[in-house]
Design goal:
223 residues; alpha+beta; Nucleoside Triphosphate Pyrophosphohydrolase; three-stranded antiparallel beta sheet; globular; hydrolase
Amino acid sequence: MAAGQHTFTVHDSEVLVESPILGLRRDEVEMPGGKRSYREIVEHFGAVAIVAHRKNASTGASEIAMVKQYRHCVGQRLWELPAGILDVAHEPELTCAQRELEEEAGLAAESWGVLVDLVTSPGFCEEAVRVFLAEDLREIPRPEATDEEADMAFRWMGLDEATAMIFRGEVVNSIAIAGILSAREVLSGRATARPVDIPFEFRPRHLAERRIAQGVEPDMKRI
């Protein structure tokens, strides 16, 4: 069989770990030549992130909303885009993005587009993220935050500065990097954002579908 033609059939699947925001699954997969191998997959709900863009009233320069949040996995506070998990059953990606922009930045937007879809760690994790561009912004009350978000800092950052911080190694969150650089292309006119109703092909399904089948909704984290 020519390369690129094999069907990787799953012969067996077992959930090893179930936790509020992820699961760990082991699949028995048929490899080329008939051998079967095990692959461990981190299941995830998927997520959204938002590049909220405005023009500085004094200088006319492009600015984007950035947050600095503690991330326990790396033990540091990271500059990131407003973002959140798709953990509400059946919720459209845009609805989640609108809620997260309100909760993390105290902003609402009249204009929305899709910048990029990305699979963050395809070697072992199902997590996929849709990054939106939000414009025509207005400030709205921000709900009271809890946990790490209660420590979150917010800042309007120049798009040029954010780009420079990527190349200085000061913005390392992969979702933020993809969002900032893709927004730069769109805002410069070198690329075009996609419509918000385009299907999110890589949105993870396994964890969400299992929780919904178990009656864990609308908040699928509550197990």
